[in-house]
Amino acid sequence: MGTQNPSAPSRAQSAAATHPTRTRHHGGGVIHENTRHTTRFTVIGNHLAQHRELSLLAIGLACHIQSLPSSAPVDIKTLAARFPEGPTRIAAALRELETHGYLRRERTRTPAGRIVTRTISCNQPGATPTPPPAPRKRKPRKPLPPVPRPAYPAPALLQQATDLLAGLRDTNPGLLLSACDTSHLAPGVAAWLEREVSPTAVRHALTSDLPPEGVRRPAALLAHRLTTHLPPPPPFRAPAPAPPPPLRNCDGCDRAFRSREPDTRCGDCRA
User: Architecture of 34-121 per CATH?
Assistant: First the structure.
């Protein structure tokens, strides 16, 4: 329970003490040895802790109720089983808290038709309740940058690109890609392979010089590298001339002649 002492010096109130802080008063009185709570604590206002009209039992009972989690039972039977004061004194203390606005009981009907009593604990009577925090909206994922496309997306080429991307996690576990990301990046890898870049060179271009602290969006990084580091097409190579027809011996004149057809006689003999 966090409290504030109105008679203690202000500097002692505001000191962010890690170790117990002792506040002394001249001439006797209470001495506070305070240690700041970091877990399992409840903030209680002085208007309750030092209330001049509530009994000590009512103040203690209000502090206990405010420390409970939501939906915890606070009926007279449950409280009497928890404390030694008995149901009569506890019922009187609950009525005190209702009179001064620290407790409110409402009867409601459940969807099943039962009448139940809801107990509302007010930590500051008369104040406007603080609304619960709005749920945080999840930001939509940014789309991946576009990647190059091969001129001839053959199925075998795309499969080779997919296998290369699936193997990147063996080089760097941080490059584990989802099936959706792999499908998006595979055409970009195929465009590199189509330009006669070896799979080893593609893998090196995608995995070298990665940040030492890891990659937050590996698919976006790979898409960027596939686009900005795309090599040019290979130089034009004229097709090699076709080899001459093979030599054959003519069955008619026994002369050698060239022919791509399985002829057994030369042109003269055929004529």
Answer: Orthogonal Bundle (1.10)
